[in-house]
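Sample intake — Histidinol-phosphate aminotransferase family protein
Collected from: Caproicibacterium amylolyticum
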Amino acid sequence: MAYQLNEKLSRLEPYIPVEETAGIIHLDANESFLNLPQALLQKASESVLQTSFNRYPDPYAGELCEAFADYYHVDAAHVTAGNGSDELISILVSNFLMKGETVVTTAPDFSMYTFYPKLAETNCVEVCKGDGFTVTPEELIQKVKETNARMLLFSNPCNPTSLGLTKEQVLQVVQNVNALVVVDEAYMDFWHASQSVLGEESQYDNLMILKTCSKMGLAAIRLGFAVANEKLTGVFHSAKSPYNVNTLTQRIGALALREQDTLKSNTEAIKSARDELQAGMSAVLEHHPNAFQLYKSCTNFVTLRLPPAAELHAYLMERNISVRKFPGFLRVTAGSKEENTAYLTALENFFQEET
Ligand SMILES: *Cc1c(COP(=O)(O)O)cnc(C)c1O
């Protein structure tokens, strides 16, 4: 007898993260370069000691969702917590779509948007972004209509382009399609609250917003949220596995989200680091006009497009600087002052050696 893997699994390519290696400057995963402050780590460890490890977690993560709702000024009854927003994307794709139905996303966009549909045996159609790395609301609306899609899923601001659609543009899309519009606002904290559609969910029966704690210094605990009206939230609660967010994550996540001043000052520090990185790259571009195309980032990373992207990636890697490589472009996460300087120096040297 021989066991045969099914077709979708035999074709699957594993996700290979860049390894965490000592001595390497990691600007490749959009993590925060700041750990939680010592006082918060202390509180977290005390909370761990008070945990009843023999008991299951709260299935609806009530306290945690309250803390999240307070931080983002939304209704706690509109919130579902997830084991990272990755898990929430997986649940959305496999349960809010039937086998064979269509989800529209954009390209380039977050890689998980095409990964989960393959596993769920749903169709995934991509709207390709041009040289400017943007799409218009009209293009999204048209593609959803044309394909009779049941879901539209995209990040705003976008990973990996670093660019965003305005709130008005996103709502235009929501108002003009019958599909469920899932707006992944993983990076919105680094742009501006005025561009977020959080809070709009009560007005629409087809809007869901995803958030994550991974970019604010909590990537280790795996914590994300979905925000939608009460009806959709009820359905989401029924569709997820009951104990999806473990007790330690619930407790530490709630503690952190209640330290609003700390989170806000860390967000500001990351935004300054991003601005510094952006300015440094503009300066390199001035020394080497047309060496690459630079985009004005509203995220915690800066994207640059250039034909020798692979060569630059390898050059940086040889100097122990790891950035994320895509076909024809690179994504560089904002790091500490020292990390940004090391990267910018290497970038300048690369173009000097090239000419
Ligand atoms: C980083 C990121 C996430 C975060 O996923 P988690 O599973 O919460 O770590 C979600 N969406 C986008 C677009 C991201 O870049």
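Post-analysis note: Residues 30, 84-86, 110, 155, 159, 184, 186, 212, 214, 224 surround pyridoxal-5'-phosphate (CB under 6 Å).
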